[in-house]
Amino acid sequence: MKKPLRLPSLLALGVNGIVGVGIFFAPREVAAVMPGWRGVWVYAAVTLLLLPTGIVFARLGRAFAEDGGPYLYARAAFGPRVAFAVGWITYVSALFSTAAVLVGLVDSSAQSLGQMAVAPRLFVELVLLTGLMGALSRGLRLSAIVWSIVTVLKSLPLIALPCAALLAAHTLPGSAASPPPLEAPGRRLLAAALPVVFALQGFEVVPLPAAQVEDPKKNVAIATLGSLLFAGALYMALHASCLLALPDLGDHALPLAETARVYGGASFERLITGATSVSALGVVIGMLAMTPRYLAPLGQDDALGLRLGEQSASSVPTRAFAVTYTILFIMLCANAFGGSIAELLALASLSVTLQYGVTAAALFALASRSDAGLSPGDRWPAPLVLLSCALFLFGASALEIPIVLAMLCLGFVAKALAERLARRRAM
Q1: Is 124 helix (H, G, I), strand (E, B) or coil?
Q2: Are the beta carbons of 70 and 84 closer than 8 angstroms?
Q3: Terminal CA-to-CA distance of the chain, rounded, Å?
Q4: How far is the C-alpha of 317 from the C-alpha of 18, rounded, in Å?
Q5: What pTM was computed for the model?
Q6: Backbone region of residue 205 per phi and psi (left: phi > 0; alpha: psi in -120 to 50; beta: other values)
Q7: 7-426 in CATH: which number?
Q8: pLDDT tens digits, residue range 89-126?
Q9: How many angstroms separate the CA atoms of 57 and 90, rounded?
């Protein structure tokens, strides 16, 4: 059968996963601790730091032309128990991230339209969740068309901003004199790098639907590395554009929107502001399309079972979609009446770091054993990834570690209950 994902849609999946809302605010955070043109090079440094991680995912994506991503790699390298832990944490963090971004999207839209009570806001969230998941469950090809269109819509204004900066560069006064030498430059570099690290995460989603990709051995690698390099170059250009327009960049709360006003007036500012909402919508669409695919591999008999991995004729894991929709529905209701789910969005940063580390370790182990078509020469990016993960852990909050441990315990409880249910059915 013809595979539903080709290189353009896979590249769009990666770019959509990376280019979220973070880049609309990252220039201010970077400039606040790394002023002047030195801030531009932070993006280049972080892109190079993440490049070995992209190579790890690209290499394993070539070796395993199957759905599953990190769960699949950990299972091949370390067995089902470690794979379940990785797959479960990845799925739970994706749930929290999806719910938080969806809530944030509706909240920002509600603020622009005026105050909205809790019940109407929840109704909008549930309608959006139901409509999007209903459309995405119709087939992976349709999902790819949707996320590709949204990726183009949110990328064009961002690409237009550096183009406007080039056209207007000779009419602007430019940035102020070079800032004085920084105290504790290493610590400042790390503080400036952390928001860029989080703004550049998302390329790891590309290998997840590898079984549905046309020529996966080539296209998964190209899309994984291509989306990372594209986003890194775009971020450098955006930061440089902001510096040209706003020499005191660290003092501006909405750097991209305020930069657009300098180059193109109020209409260009509104376009960039609107791109923020489109970008958030794109992230929600990508997450709703891919989060069930983190759950589907846990349908293995030695994981949760429950036939979660069964796919429809249109390449959709229908049971995983139904379970994910139900959980998100409950989470949105709990958020509306019981507290802010946005506080748990930070869980994603630690879980993604763990995902990077385990995947790199899996590559090292498999290559050392010459398994899955890998050779010992393929091991070289893994130590670099593990080193970068150690640096990323500085960005984890004290709350994240106990939350991850609690979620792991919950996962193994769910696994034990699923195994007991399977035994009862077999009797």
Answers
A1: helix
A2: no
A3: 38
A4: 24
A5: 0.87
A6: alpha
A7: 1.20.1740.10
A8: 888 888 888 888 888 788 777 666 556 677 888 888 89
A9: 15
